[in-house]
Specification:
The chain has 186 residues and is mainly α. It is built from eight helices and three strands. The protein has a three-stranded antiparallel sheet. The longest helix is centred in the C-terminal third of the chain and has 28 residues.
């Protein structure tokens, strides 16, 4: 299969998506951008998961694991696994602040900080590729639309979680519920 046929096949698929399927387009755009960056990160032996945490720490060095997890929107176990791996690679180190033995803070090492000058241009390259062929005005409109979509859904989430005393269940919890339902059916 040629590169051209892959692109044309993808275009045919996109044209067949019903107009109300914005979620599919957003998901596919995110996935395509992540894969494009992943391919570039591989050349520098950095996983995409580490990229997410490094990007945050480049701007906010010295966060606790909980703060990093919340900022990244990742679960605590996922964050811990990434921190341990990045620590073994020499990108981060854990430190306690004097007078505060309760919290452990994460700091980039010199090699973790140095990755910024190498990796940030890769993300900028992916962003440039993603908007290729779009005018500045179209990009500004897309940003405005996506920001509003995020805002609308965040407000809806807050209303649902607070009004009905709900919480977002973990994948593990959903699996337990499903197993319980299946046991009830037997």
């Amino acid at each position: 299969m040629t590169e051209k046929s892959v692109v044309l096949g993808r275009r045919d698929w996109l044209e067949s998506i019903p107009q109300d399927r914005l979620a599919h387009l957003i998901k596919d755009a995110r996935r395509a951008m992540e894969r494009s960056l992943q391919i570039r990160l591989i050349d520098h032996s950095v996983s995409f998961g580490h990229w997410s945490f490094l990007r945050i720490l480049w701007e906010h060095d010295g966060l606790t694991q909980r703060e990093l997890s919340e900022t990244a929107g990742m679960s605590a176990p996922t964050t811990l696994a990434a921190i341990r791996a990045m620590e073994s690679l020499g990108y981060v180190e854990r430190k306690q602040k004097s007078g505060n033995r309760k919290n452990v803070y994460l700091y980039l090492t010199d090699s973790g900080k140095a990755l910024k000058t190498t990796l940030l241009p890769l993300a900028e390259e992916v962003n440039a590729l993603a908007v290729q062929g779009l005018s500045v005005q179209e990009v500004l409109i897309a940003r405005k639309v996506l920001a509003k979509v995020i805002e609308n859904l965040a407000m809806d989430e807050q209303e649902l979680l607070h009004s009905e005393n709900r919480k977002v269940p973990s994948t593990r919890h959903l699996a337990r519920l499903r197993l319980a339902d299946e046991a009830d059916e037997v």
